[in-house]
Amino acid sequence: MAKISVILPTYNEKGNIVKLIEKIFCNLPEDIEIIVVDDDSPDGTWKVVENVSKRDGRVKLVRRINQRGLTSAIAQGISLSKGQIVVWMDGDFSMPPDVLPQLVGEIGPFDIVVGSRYVKGGKDMRSSRFRVLISKAFDTLAQVFLQMPVRDLTTGFVAAKKEVFNTLSLSGDYGDYCIDFLYRAVKQGFKVKEIPYVCLPRLTGQTKTNPNIFKLIRHGCIYLWTVLKLKLSGHSLSTKRRG
What we know:
Elements: E1 4-10, H1 17-27, E2 32-38, H2 45-55, E3 59-63, H3 70-80, E4 85-88, H4 100-105, E5 112-116, E6 123-124, H5 129-146, E7 158-161, H6 176-187, E8 192-196, E9 198-199, H7 213-233
Parallel strand pairs: 1-2, 1-4, 2-3, 5-8, 6-9
Antiparallel strand pairs: 4-7, 5-7
Helix pairs in contact: 5-7, 6-7
């Protein structure tokens, strides 16, 4: 199997990160690397990862000082990755590592495989039912509006051939990067498949994505604006040309 790079963007995941790394290694073959891109977490996540990396050369740490952002963290991890397949997922155990073999196993006939909460067998079990309902409603609206074959456009649980990023780059503020990326991938003719997964409540710590109603509304507005721009312009926020 081709070498796999797993990218974990983190911020204050000290209580989850070691166990997550262990579970990833249990579920994927030996020929992998894990790249943790940490935004200088105040809880010392980067220190924990640094200690793990000293014991296991397959684990690499990128500590970003005075730099924040999910999209740029994932993009930086991809740029440093050596695998022919790149995977990214959250660092809070909401995305079960035991789904990884199926996620990467579909790469080959498909260029991009996404873990989906909204196909048969998938489910969103996060603790805030309001967030769950809003997410589902938005993804359904975006899918219909953009006429996309992908149901979970804000998933953030993705495996892709590294060569895809010779054509596409990641751009956006937060979860909107995934909408933009998947929309452009389909428009460029890349083959995308969804597989189900059950999104679980985070193992430890507090969510940073939408911790209150005001940030939830803000991110919702950003998502809607992204969808409108994609629909009206017919092209991406940021695209690299082939060749």
